[in-house]
Amino acid sequence: MTDAQDTAADSSLRTTGGTPPDDAGSSATEAPTPLLEPREGIPPVVTDEDALARVVAAFAAGSGPVAVDAERASGYRYGQRAYLVQLRRAGAGTALIDPVACPDLSGLGEALSGVEWVLHAATQDLPCLREIGMVPSSLFDTELAGRLAGFPRVGLGAMVEGVLGFVLEKGHSAVDWSTRPLPEPWLRYAALDVELLVDLRDALEKELDRQGKLEWARQEFDAIASAPPAEPRKDPWRRTSGMHKVRRRRQLGVVRELWQTRDRIAQKRDVSPGKVLGDAAIVEAALALPANAHALAALTGFGHRMGRRQLEQWQAAVDRAKALPDSALPLPGQPVTGPPPPRAWADKDPAAAARLSAARAAVSALAEQLTMPQENLITPDTVRRLCWEPPKTVDAETVGAALAGYGARPWQVEQVTAALVTALTA
């Protein structure tokens, strides 16, 4: 799309409800306008290398930030891979790319190197984008910007409505995006998700600047863009819902074996693990320790709909756990790398418990004063670690250094250090 066409498209947008307001929230007194169609219509889905090459060239030649979004099939497929990637940039229009048909988007990522990417809740989409070769060098996260600016609701629909005065249709957010071909209403929804993202970014930048928080936001965005890929979670089976009911080590072994068996099956079949066997069924089997497949079939989650081969498969997993020597069974709880749970502080270290109470109150008051969530001002884990093991000499320099060592950004250190010094020395 040419710049002239983009200008015409902006004019078309104005005829459907007005341009985004200069001041965030200034449209709140007006009735919001439903946004029903993308400005240039629904673009064809890119499914081959020739079409992808044209998109890469168009977006490389575009101007300004690029809006980026991705759709996953959470709850339907194994893992968190992307099943649709949406982009929009001035001078290039909107593109919808099928990453199943075009699994390597590193060329597109390279073409957009040095360009600011605009995402909503960036940490949700960056892992699946990284898998297909798309990694931003700089970004603007509209959800995080909304949090820092003090907006009470920061979902994309709420932000677009409250800031820009348009209503997005959100009825397809939880559909199975691995479906092929993707229905036209879903594609329309996907295209609209990036339609106003850059407009939202511009309005939020002005609001953050007005509040004196723009540099804070930039530091947060830089931290997200430069963060390394997350390490695989240790012992993910321990996150099975209902684990609090499981106390004995043999039962823990059954949960682990059933979870790992389910995960292998789900990965092989490319379906969500919950569609293979529910967490409640895993916990039920662990508590009951059934002697055979017949006893297993009587448990919740292993009913008459489950075939004999499946029952025998799950019973074999239970039997493997029952046969393990005690030395191979998992221990209750997880290795603690930081402070103990706060509820135990009063007994373990009453002075630390008092420090934590004072620090939490100080952070809460400061967050309210700055109109932002406490966890965005400083992470609760950082506060806990500081209070559990404060510097030997508590002053602005040592506390600030400790905060920075725990990963706090410079703006956070500047804002919270004085309040935390007071809390630690009270």
Describe this structure as you would to a colleague.
With 426 residues, the chain is α/β, with parallel strands linked by helices. The chain has 3 domains: 3-226, Nucleotidyltransferase, domain 5, CATH 3.30.420.10; 236-328, DNA polymerase, domain 1 (Orthogonal Bundle), CATH 1.10.150.80; 342-425, DNA polymerase, domain 1. Helix content is 51%, strand content 9%. The strands form 2 sheets. A 6-stranded mixed β-sheet has the order 2-5-4-3-6-7, with helices on both faces. Strand 4 (82-90) and strand 5 form a beta hairpin. The model is unreliable at 1-28 (pLDDT under 50).
Summarize the structure in short.
The radius of gyration is 26 Å and the shape is flat. The protein folds into 3 domains: 224 residues, Nucleotidyltransferase, domain 5; 93 residues, DNA polymerase, domain 1, CATH 1.10.150.80; 84 residues, DNA polymerase, domain 1 (Orthogonal Bundle). By secondary structure, it is α/β, with parallel strands linked by helices.
Name the features:
six-stranded mixed sheet; Nucleotidyltransferase, domain 5; 51% helix; 426 residues; flat; DNA polymerase, domain 1; 8 strands; alpha/beta; two-stranded parallel sheet
